[in-house]
UniProtKB/TrEMBL annotation:
PANTHER family, A to Z: TRANSCRIPTIONAL REGULATOR, GNTR FAMILY, UXU OPERON TRANSCRIPTIONAL REGULATOR
Residues passing through the membrane, by range: none
Any Pfam family matching the protein: GntR
Annotated SUPFAM superfamilies: GntR ligand-binding domain-like, Winged helix' DNA-binding domain
HTH gntR-type domain location: 6-74
Protein name, as recorded: FadR/GntR family transcriptional regulator
Family matches, as InterPro entries: GntR_C, TF_FadR/GntR_C, Tscrpt_reg_HTH_GntR, WH-like_DNA-bd_sf, WH_DNA-bd_sf
UniProt keyword annotations, A-Z: DNA-binding, Transcription, Transcription regulation
Length: 241
């Protein structure tokens, strides 16, 4: 069976890696503009924008509002490598362990974001939320938007160590969110519920209600763990005979 065709933005991610991230540009160097990249790869600026967001989530570039996109500095890259070598070691319990870490980290970040988020931070979170709403029928784009939503809340905490840590774990975070969405979105009625949960968190942060934001994020991640555990239990029961 042939492999599923990659979406345009995924192709652009690979092209940017090949042309720039693995090329002659050094950490701290600026990438071409969205328009220039769109012309270079003969794709839409929307595809370029989605690709850049994906690379930012992976911690490979930094997008600075009004300035452009830059290759991550060597200091951040070194820290990422160090964290990766000491943290990312797990087998069967990996998803649950990542969720435990996310619960500690993201609950605090939601609290801090409510007090520290700038208008640009709130705009990034809102854009991710709107993308989730637009991509109800696009599994990959919806997943990307979900991951972006959570990482941008961490970014809005304005704690650089928290951000570098979550970027280090982005692939595992991606996997936990993917597993949750696969379970939840199998029921069409849960699609809007999932979006509404994220919207409530955003509104609490935007209104500066730190205690509510903290409570809602903890409730959200606790519910994720509960649903995954229930899903695993049902699978074991169905396959026990």
């Amino acid at each position: 069976m042939p492999e599923p065709r990659k979406k345009t933005y995924q192709v652009v991610v690979d092209q940017i890696k090949e042309y720039f991230l693995n090329g002659e540009l050094k950490p701290g160097d600026k990438l071409p503009t969205e328009r220039e990249l769109a012309n270079l790869f003969n794709v839409s600026r929307t595809s370029v924008r989605e690709a850049l967001k994906k690379l930012e989530i992976k911690g490979l570039i930094e997008i600075r509002q009004g300035s452009g996109s830059f290759i991550k500095t060597s200091e951040s890259s070194t820290l990422t490598v160090d964290l990766s070598s000491t943290i990312i070691h797990a087998e069967k319990k990996l998803i649950y362990e990542i969720l435990e870490l996310r619960r500690v980290l993201e609950v605090e970040c939601a609290f801090l974001a409510s007090r520290r988020a700038t208008s640009e931070d709130l705009e990034r979170i809102r854009e991710a939320l709107e993308m989730m709403d637009r991509s109800k029928n696009d599994v990959e784009l919806g997943l990307q938007a979900d991951v972006s939503f959570h990482i941008n809340i961490v970014r809005a905490s304005h704690n650089s160590i928290f951000l570098q840590l979550i970027q280090t774990l982005s692939e595992h975070m991606h996997n936990t969110i993917q597993a949750t969405r696969r379970h939840r979105l199998a029921n069409p009625e849960r699609v809007q519920d999932t979006i509404d949960e994220h919207k409530e968190i955003y509104l609490a942060i935007a209104s500066g209600d730190a205690d509510l934001a903290k409570h809602l994020m903890e409730k959200h991640i606790t519910q994720i763990r509960k649903e995954l555990a229930e899903s695993s239990l049902r699978y074991c029961e169905e396959n026990s005979n």
